[in-house]
Amino acid sequence: MALDRWIALILLGICLAYGYAAWFTMDANLAPFMRRNPIWPSTFPKVLSILGILASLIILLGLEKGEAKIGDIDYRRLGDYHIGQALILLGLMVAYALCLRPLGFLFSTAAFLILGSFVLGERKWHIMIPVSLLATFIVWYLVQEVLGIFLRPLPFFMGV
Amino acid sequence: MLEGLLIGLQTALSFQNLAMVIGGCLIGTFIGMLPGLGPMSIIAIMIPVAISLGDASAALILLAGVYYGAIFGGSTSSILLNAPGVAGTVASSFDGFPMAKQGKAGKALTIAAVASFCGGTIGALLLMIFAPALSSVALLFHSAEYFALMVVGLSAIAAFAGTGQVAKALMMTILGLIMATVGEGALFNLPRFTMGIMDLQSGFGFITLAMAMFALPEALFLVLNPPKINKGDDGKIKDLRISRAEAKAIAPVIGRQSIQGFFIGVLPGAGATIASFLGYAVERNIATKVEQEEFGKGSIKGLAAPETANNAACTGSFVPLLTLGIPGSGTTAILLGALIALNVTPGPRLMIDEPQVFWAVIMSMFIGNLVLLILNLPLIPYIAKVLSIPRNYLIPFILFFTLMGAYIGQNNATELLLLVGFGICATALRFADYPLAPLLIGFILGGMLEDNFSRSMQLYDGIGFIWERPMTLGLLVIALLLVVLPSYRARRARLRQAGVADGD
């Protein structure tokens, strides 16, 4: 089975779970006066779940024929690409999300930018570090001072 | 009207207001270029500045300038990075980005600038002529028609955005609608499908989703499969000119889309996003067979259509705001808030009570479009310098800006984890050739679609509004045809081909 039909199977599962929630669990604690309404909070989701199940079945069963095309990247040969770099970058993004609050914007961002370009194969430290630090500071200054959106600059143990 | 025009010119041409137009357009362009900061957030940020001016005309002129600037900047990043910062420019990346990939970024940006200018200027002309008349047309539309109109928009998107596979595009649209139901809606005040997670209470963030669907997969693709760099095409933007033949090809597109985009923009809820997608779809459908093949691979028509339409629609969206006092989009809703804070109530009486505000805004639209064209065309080579940044630096920065865009809007680190999660899903979907734009459009329109559906259900006490209102029924039939026809046509073509292959 090709990847698009596997995905259709997953989407079918999502639609079934969504439909189950809409048809069987949502109306239980609806206030009595709302039951007299022609439209309930679950009405629209019910319609959507049916449409979603139909569409995913059409794809899953291959009712609509389409020629399989290979786009920019052929997922069947994923190993040929720089999959490691991509995964490390995704990991870095998760780490950034977790560190942004506790370690502060300046440190997290500078580390993210430096490590990111390091992962991609950059070794010119004398360019990489100043560029990252400068960019971090400029963005922080613009967002915090010009736009007035609070970004905690320093780690939690060094003040705000 | 002539008197009004003169009042408007007098107000708009004052030194302060000229500075407002130019400043607004510049700020809008630069911030709009950053993926993730759309016109809505920029205008929201600029509101304190505008209100502190204390002059309603100046404030509205500034904010309107920021609005066009942001749309223009958004198309620049759509074309160069395939990272649309604004939903209204998603369609521009369909053909703009392939053009940039082919080394024709300069031409693409010129076409975008010229198309935006024409769309905005023709839109402003139409606004001037039709504003009073159109208010009565828009009044004819009830929520039932809005619901039907949105269904038409979504089916058109599903029918035309996919790569010939309507079921996949439809599935993505429905998935977007499903995602839009997560969180607390205005109509019921009940959290739905949040699975008890606090951070989902207000639903998924639009910017987060937009980043995850477009910017993140694009960056990941750049990592996975580094583009082969040709010598002589080191990101330099050259060849800004469009040839006479190309100008001839896009002129009718610009003419049609200015008008169509404007009228779609007038309808509340439709706005620049639908206008650009519908414009793209219409132009693709009426193009010749040979040109249709080009669409999605760097067609100049496919770039000019959404660019014209979204700017014309931006102008059109001022009609309900200025004549009815009803904002048709998030952006005009923010403008409405700013006007009320300045003690000006937009509505049918605005033209009588405060003619200088009404006409100055219209005049400033002409000036603003001219400023965008004059400032941005010569600046394009510098703006496009973004492309010549080495990949090792560019990719971490794109990733960082997607993270920042998602974070600034919500100030919530969970949003960043959602971003990464959705980004991975979006990449997998792209591997399997599922179109992603319908998902985002479904998500954006989902809330409005449900609101209008619910309102008509309540008004007609059931589903009866569909057959009781002929306009609704007509629109819904069109929507159905849009979905069914392409697969029917494909089936017939295949059968015919099979017949030929049989050889008798």
Features:
heterodimer, A: 160 residues, mainly alpha, B: 504 residues, two-stranded antiparallel sheet, 2 strands
What does this structure look like?
The complex is a heterodimer of chains A (160) and B (504). Chain A contains 6 helices and no strands. Chain A is mainly α and 160 residues long. The model of chain A has no long low-confidence stretch (mean pLDDT 83). With 504 residues, chain B is mostly helical. Chain B contains 22 helices and 2 strands. Chain B has helices spanning 2-12, 15-33, 39-53, 56-81, 90-101, 105-140, 143-161, 166-180, 206-224, 244-266, 271-286, 289-294, 300-316, 318-324, 330-341, 350-353, 355-383, 391-410, 413-431, 437-460, 465-468, 470-502; strands spanning 183-184, 191-192. In chain B, strands 1-2 form a two-stranded antiparallel sheet. In chain B, helix 3 packs antiparallel against helix 4. The N and C termini of chain B lie far apart (70 Å). The interface between A and B is large, with 70 and 65 residues.
